[in-house]
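We modelled the chain as a single entity of 494 amino acids. Its sequence is:
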Amino acid sequence: MLKQSLQQKLLQKLSPQQIQLMKLLQVTTLELDQRIKEEIEINPALEEGSDEPEKDDENFSDLDYDNEEEAFENKENSREDFNLDEYIDDDEIPSYKLQVKNNGEDDDRREIPITGTVSFQDTLVNQLGMVTIDDYHYQLALTVIGNIDDNGYLVRDLLSMSDDLVFSQNIQASEDDLLDVLKVIQSFDPPGVGARNLKECLEIQLRRKIAMHSQNHSVLELALTIVNQQMEEFSKKHYEKIQKKYNLSNEMLKQVIAEILHLNPRPGNSVAEGKRSSQHITPDFMIYENDGRLELTLNSRNAPELRVSRAYKEMLQEYAHSKLGSKDKKEAVQFVKQKIDSASWFIDAIKQRQHTLLMTMQVIMEYQYEFFNSGDETKLKPMILKDIAERVNLDISTVSRVANSKYVQTAFGTMLIKSLFSESLSTDAGEEVSTKEVKKILQDHISAENKRKPLTDEKLCEILKENGYNIARRTVAKYREQLNLPVARLRKEL
């Protein structure tokens, strides 16, 4: 049964302008430049430059013309002709029919740039071309190289590759044939490439070194023996067992360990790092000291000069004063008005972005004034997103968008704003301190420890408690792992 009724509902919806502002808030300075260029390209009513009147327009009234009609004609001729028929064409295929869009309008577009550098596998193929080899073994070598990852390791076993060759290329290849080809590839540069595990990788590099040194390679041969027979003990730094087993002096053990530690456990990275493009960080904010006071400035690229096209404004005025009768004229007015509104919305969103960024970063600077004034990480106060959101009277998600992927340049270096946020920890005196302060103290003690007898997590916990930081051993272990510091046994040195 159908029924009609009146209902009142309270709904909360985001306007297109609010969505646009949220997207602009989370982009970096470099991404903002690209976003502005894209908007100028798709919206001819948006232009770069200040909104101040140009000199030609200011002097227009001073020109001597016989009458107003002549003046108007000269002004029309001085302006570039803009034909709306180029934008409104009934015979033109609509743009929505020429593209496929499977994602929503609010989805972020994160495109990965394509680089034209030579891959690690390509360098191996180039070296393969310098080896005298028949077509059969050449095809086997290409298959082996295709199964070597960017670290330089062979990621598939020979039996599986033999099966792949049968099914994909109809090539009957035995494991012995593949092993022979693998030995050839293991002679390529960088040393250690084509290894099936870390042990084999180190052995290949040591054998290459022994072959290159005709004399005094007793240390290298001993290192090769230890890697071959005592790899597990060496990786766990059980140096006493190794020293006792081979009856080594302290000096000889140090030389052997030094030789092994100088080997490259990831030979493929040496090629990839040389071709990796460096990424420069552009700070969004600058904090500097002026007469004993800290001052905050916004990167000028975050405050571009944009304006609505004057030609579009005048065009809209002309159509407004003219008598519109045809459908084309109405569509022209609608088109011009839409482009002007879109440009105005975009300019307002950029200005609102500037205001929000400055207001939020100003509060963060005042909250962490002691840190920005001294650069001492122990001066960092506990700070979470909620603390800043309450002070700037904004939502937590808005503050998160401002802090995410934004950088601030200080006298002590450029840092990620998100790294300034941390949880709090209570001391014995009841004072709230930042977990970053505890991590800094923890890192300082580990850096200054005796590497022959490194501090265990229990000992570090005792040291922190003596300094008034009531912290459990498992928390010390968690902070140590966050600092990418290994356990005491793996930090041991001779």
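As a brief sanity check on the tokenised model: Residues 425-491 form a domain with the Arc Repressor Mutant, subunit A fold (CATH 1.10.10.60). The first strand starts at residue 46 and ends at 48.
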